[in-house]
Each structure stands twice: as C-alpha cells, then as structure tokens.
Amino acid sequence: MHRRREDSQNDRSPDEMLGGASPPGDLAAALAGLATDVSEGLNAKVLVLNRAYAAMRIVSARRAFCLLSRSIAEIIHVETDQSGAGRYLNYDLESWIGVSALQHEYERERHDWVRTVRFEIAVPRIIRLLGYDRLPEQTVKLNRRNLFARDRNRCQYCGRIYPTSDLSIDHVRPRSQGGNDSWENLVCACIRCNARKGGRTPEEAHMKLVRAPIRPKRNPLIALRLGNEKYQSWKAFLDNAYWSVELG
Asked: I need a labelling partner for 17 at 20 to 30 A (CA). Which of 33, 45, 106, 165 fits?
C-alpha cells in the first residue's frame, strides 16, 4: 500500500545517516518556505528506530523530514483504540502528508505542525530506517545536560527544584580528596548548598544526599520526554530497551 525503498545503509554510521543532509527537490523548497510562527515544529523530537524496530536515537523533526524525503526512512504511527490496544501503521512521506490533512481537522492539538506554502504536515513521533539494522553503542554521555536531567533539576542536598541557571555540578567526594568525574560522584547542587559544602564530603559538611547518584541505563532526557503525552508512543520501543538512546 505504501511505497518503500529497502536501500542498504549498513556500511554507513548513524551519524552519517542522521546528519544534516538537505532534502531534495520539491520538499526542500517547501521546507525552505516554512512560516516563522510554526518553526518550533521543526525542533520537535522524533524517535529513530533501526530496521529491526530497535530504538537508536532521537533527532529533530528537521532531520527526520530529510531522511523521509530521501526514502531512507518511513514513518511508524501508533494508533490506540478505546481498549488501550495499539497497532503500528507504516507510511512513506507522501502518504503521511495525506494523513496529516485528516489529523489537522480532527486531532490538531495532539501534534506539532510544520507549515509550508502549500500545506501543513504533522510532525511524526517515530521513524524507522529502512536499511540499517545495527544497534547503537550502549553508553550514556556524561555531561551537564544529562546530569541535570537525571536529577530532574533538584538540588541533591536541600531537595528543592531550581532552573538550570541556578544549579551547579558538585563532586560528592571532592577532587582534592581523589574524587573523579563519574556518574556516581557528580550531583546537581544549588549554588547555596554547593558553597556550604565547599571542598568537603557530605559527612564532613554534615549534609545528606537526597539519593545516591547512579549511572542511568538510558539517556535521562528520554524519561523527561515520556512524561509528555505527545511522546507516549515512544514507550512501546523504550520500556524494554537496555541500550541508551542518543539525543541528536
């Protein structure tokens, strides 16, 4: 029913496939004419699966549309009936544009949208690479963004939630005492608590951690996305995943 092209892509890395290549032809012109008031739609996040339906990483809608327009990927749409049972529907980009017309009329609030001079198209939540079946490396990058996400922007000493601008990264065991840069030794701390603790261990400063820091099994930003109703369709592909999913 829907057109597919099973190109072999296994000799290319995920970074090469998911890079910033531009879409060809008419779609390139359409995307270039996006209205500024819906430009956020191109920044919405899309889960990428390999050919075997294993989660690989998350990319922006702009990258997803580039892959779809080059027939490297197809759209996986999860429909849920009244009983809660779901089914997966596969669409190529041309078919999805037609489906978007119905979604625009009946389910507009459930989707992010991209507007071109000729039509509006719903941002898909999931795409599947047609010719790539490798699994991603099973590690989660240690960086400030992921640390803040793991701790949910909560100071691990006073327990309060702060904006990122009011948070810092604290070494539980200070570097001066041999503490290293690891998931198990780094926590979110508000500026006040970090200053109070200084170059001491929590025990020395008479402070307690809200919880012991651990290495996450998957990118902690994924858990934050799953709390949004728009991304509930990701759960079927992430709940049993033991590898990490890179945020592109």
From this structure: 33
- C-alpha 47/C-alpha 60 separation (Å) is 9
How many helices (H) and strands (E) the chain has is answered by 8, 10
DSSP code, position 186: E
pLDDT in tens, 199-229: 999 999 999 999 999 988 766 667 666 667 7
User: Which residues 6+ apart lie within 8 Å of 183 measured at CB?
Assistant: 140, 142, 150, 213, 214, 215, 216
Return the number of other C-beta atoms located less than 10 Å from residue 215's C-beta: 11
Structure confidence by residue, pLDDT tens digits, 109-125:
777 888 877 778 889 99
Contact 91, 143 (CB under 8 A): no
Domains of the chain listed by start with CATH number: 14-138+221-247 (no CATH), 144-197 (1.10.30.50)
Q: Give the model confidence (pLDDT) of 26-52 as tens digits.
A: 555 555 544 444 457 888 889 999 898
User: What is the rounded distance in angstroms from the CA atom of residue 228 to the CA atom of residue 220?
Assistant: 14
